[in-house]
C-alpha cells in the first residue's frame, strides 16, 4: 500500500497530466470560450484606452500635432489636385462598370466584423465573426477604404484570428500604380512589410502606392497595400528590396470587411 | 485559503491580459506594449519568498492566459514563465547587498531573457529584437515592482503574515 503522502502526489501528477492533455486537445474550443467571454470587455477597454491615449497625446505632442496638421493640409491640397485628374478616370470606370453591370457589392460578398483583440508583436487581431457566419481560413480582410488588412488564419465558432499583412506568414504579389511588379510583398513582423525579390532593372519609385495583383487565392486584385518608402539596391545581390509603409496602423483597426466570395 | 489566493491571482492575470491586448494598444511605443502579465509575475517573484510549488503554480496562472491569446502553441508561455521562475530564483542568491536595487537588476535581466527567448523562437523567419520592448517594459516594470512591494509591505503590517 502506498503512503497517503505518495497517493496525494500520484493523484496531483495524474490530475496535472489530464489537465495538460485536455488543454492540448481542446485548445481551440478553450480559446473560443475565452474569446467569447472577453470580447465585450476588450472592446470597452480598447475604446477607453484610445480615448485616454488620444487625450494624453494631445497634451504631450501639441507642437508636433500643429506641424503634422500643416503637413496634412499641404498633402490635402496635392491630393485635391490629383483628385481632379482621377475624377475623369473614375467617371470612365463608372460608365464601364454600368455597361458591364458590375457593382462592388455584386462583385464581392462582404461581411462586416469588429476587432476585439490586437497583438502588435505577433501581428494578428481577433474579430467577432467566425465559422457560424461563414468564415473560412484564407479569406481576405479589408477596411472600408479598400485597404488590405490581412487574411483569415484560424476560425473559431464565433470568432476568427486574422493575420495582418505585416505578419511573417504573409507573402503576396503586388502592382505599383497599376503596373505589375516581379517580386513579392512579405510581412516582416512587428508591423513591418517589405517588397522583396524585385529584379534590379525594375524602376521602383519611393512614394508609389502598391495594390494587390490578385494572383493568390482569396486575395482580390486592386486592394491597397501601402506606400513604397526606402529602396535598397546592392551590387552583391541580384534583387532589390524596398520598405512598404502600411496604410493602416493596428491600433486604428476597429471595423473591417471580410470578402466571403468573389 | 490558498485556493482563494490562486483564484484571485487567476482573475487578476486574466484582467491584466485583457488590458494588455486592448487598453494598452493605443499606448504602444515603437510597436512595444507593456507586458503586464510578465511584469507582475516577475514583481511577485521578487517580493515573495521562493517556494517551488507556489512559483510553479504562479507560472502556470500567469502563462495560461498569455497562451490563450497568443499565436504560438499552447503551453509555451507557461514554460517560459517557469524558466523565468528558475532564473530569478538562481540569480537572487547572488544579489544581497541592496535588495531594491538588486531586484531592479534582476527585473531587467528577466525582461531581457524573456524577449531573447521569444526572439529565438522566431529565428527561423528572421532574427527580430525590439529594443523598445525591453526599455518600455523595464520602465513600467519598475513602477509595478514598487506598487507590488508597497502592497506586500502594507499587507504584512496589516495582517502580520
Quaternary organisation of the protein chains: heterodimer
Mean of all residue-level pLDDT scores of chain A = 84
Please state how the strands of the largest beta sheet of chain A are arranged side by side: 6-9-10-13-12-11-7-8
Mean pLDDT of chain B: 87
Secondary-structure element string of chain B: HHHHHH
Question: Which structural class do the helices and strands of chain A define?
Answer: alpha+beta
Q: Using the alpha-carbon principal axes, give the shape of chain A.
A: globular
Q: Roughly how many Å apart are the termini of chain B?
A: 13 Å
Features:
heterodimer, A: 262 residues, alpha+beta, 8-stranded antiparallel sheet, 6-stranded antiparallel barrel, 4 helices, B: 161 residues, mainly alpha, 6 helices, 75% helix, 0% strand
Structure description:
The complex is a heterodimer of chains A (262) and B (161). Chain A is an alpha+beta fold. Chain A is 38% helix and 31% strand. Chain A has helices spanning 4-25, 27-60, 62-100, 104-107; strands spanning 109-119, 124-127, 140-142, 148-155, 160-164, 171-172, 174-176, 179-180, 184-189, 192-199, 209-212, 224-232, 239-246, 255-261. In chain A, the strands form two sheets. Chain A has an eight-stranded antiparallel beta sheet with strand order 6-9-10-13-12-11-7-8, with no helix packed on it. In chain A, a hairpin with a 2-residue loop joins strand 9 (184-189) and strand 10. The longest helix of chain A is centred in the first third of the chain and has 39 residues, at 62-100. The mean pLDDT of chain B is 87. The longest helix of chain B has 29 residues, at 131-159. Chain B has helices at 2-23, 36-47, 52-68, 76-92, 99-121, 131-159. Chain B is built from six helices and no strands. Classes of the chains: A alpha+beta (262), B mainly alpha (161). Chains A and B meet through helix 1, helix 2 and strand 1 of A and helix 1 of B.
Q: Can you give me a brief rundown of this structure?
A:
The complex is a heterodimer of chains A (262) and B (161). Chain A has 4 helices and 14 strands.
Amino acid at each position: 500500500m502506498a503512503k497517503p503522502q505518495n497517493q496525494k502526489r500520484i493523484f496531483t501528477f495524474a490530475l496535472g497530466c489530464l489537465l495538460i492533455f485536455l488543454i492540448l486537445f481542446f485548445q481551440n474550443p478553450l480559446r473560443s470560450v475565452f474569446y467569447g467571454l472577453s470580447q465585450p470587455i476588450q472592446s470597452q477597454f480598447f475604446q477607453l484606452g484610445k480615448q485616454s491615449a488620444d487625450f494624453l497625446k494631445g497634451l504631450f505632442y501639441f507642437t508636433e500635432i500643429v506641424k503634422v496638421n500643416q503637413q496634412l493640409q499641404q498633402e490635402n491640397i496635392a491630393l485635391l489636385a490629383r483628385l481632379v485628374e482621377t475624377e475623369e478616370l473614375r467617371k470612365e470606370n463608372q460608365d464601364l462598370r454600368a455597361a458591364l453591370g458590375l457593382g462592388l457589392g455584386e462583385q464581392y460578398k462582404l461581411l462586416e466584423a469588429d476587432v476585439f483583440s490586437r497583438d502588435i508583436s505577433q501581428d494578428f487581431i481577433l474579430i467577432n465573426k467566425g465559422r457560424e457566419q461563414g468564415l473560412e481560413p484564407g479569406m481576405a480582410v479589408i477596411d472600408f477604404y479598400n485597404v488590405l488588412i490581412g487574411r483569415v488564419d484560424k476560425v473559431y465558432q464565433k470568432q476568427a484570428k486574422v493575420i495582418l499583412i505585416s505578419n511573417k506568414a504573409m507573402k503576396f504579389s503586388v502592382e505599383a500604380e497599376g503596373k505589375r511588379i516581379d517580386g513579392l510583398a512579405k510581412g516582416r513582423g512587428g508591423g513591418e512589410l517589405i517588397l522583396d525579390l524585385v529584379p534590379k532593372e525594375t524602376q521602383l519609385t519611393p512614394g508609389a502606392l502598391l495594390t494587390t495583383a490578385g494572383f493568390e487565392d482569396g486575395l482580390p486584385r486592386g486592394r491597397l497595400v501601402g506606400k513604397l518608402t526606402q529602396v535598397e539596391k546592392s551590387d552583391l545581390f541580384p534583387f532589390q528590396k524596398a520598405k512598404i509603409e502600411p496604410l493602416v496602423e493596428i491600433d486604428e483597426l476597429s471595423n473591417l470587411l471580410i470578402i466571403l466570395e468573389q | 485559503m490558498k485556493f482563494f489566493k490562486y483564484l484571485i491571482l487567476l482573475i487578476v492575470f486574466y484582467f491584466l491580459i485583457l488590458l494588455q491586448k486592448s487598453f494598452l494598444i493605443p499606448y504602444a511605443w515603437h510597436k512595444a506594449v507593456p507586458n503586464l502579465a510578465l511584469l507582475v509575475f516577475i514583481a511577485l517573484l521578487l517580493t515573495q519568498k521562493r517556494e517551488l510549488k507556489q512559483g510553479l503554480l504562479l507560472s502556470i496562472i500567469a502563462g495560461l492566459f498569455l497562451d490563450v491569446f497568443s499565436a504560438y502553441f499552447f503551453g509555451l508561455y507557461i514554460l517560459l514563465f517557469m524558466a523565468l521562475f528558475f532564473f530569478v530564483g538562481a540569480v537572487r542568491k547572488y544579489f544581497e547587498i541592496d535588495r531594491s536595487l538588486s531586484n531592479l537588476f534582476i527585473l531587467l535581466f528577466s525582461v531581457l531573457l524573456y524577449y531573447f527567448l521569444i526572439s529565438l523562437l522566431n529565428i527561423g523567419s528572421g532574427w527580430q529584437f525590439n529594443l523598445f520592448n525591453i526599455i518600455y517594459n523595464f520602465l513600467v516594470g519598475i513602477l509595478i515592482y514598487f506598487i507590488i512591494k508597497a502592497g506586500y509591505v502594507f499587507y504584512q503590517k496589516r495582517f502580520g503574515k
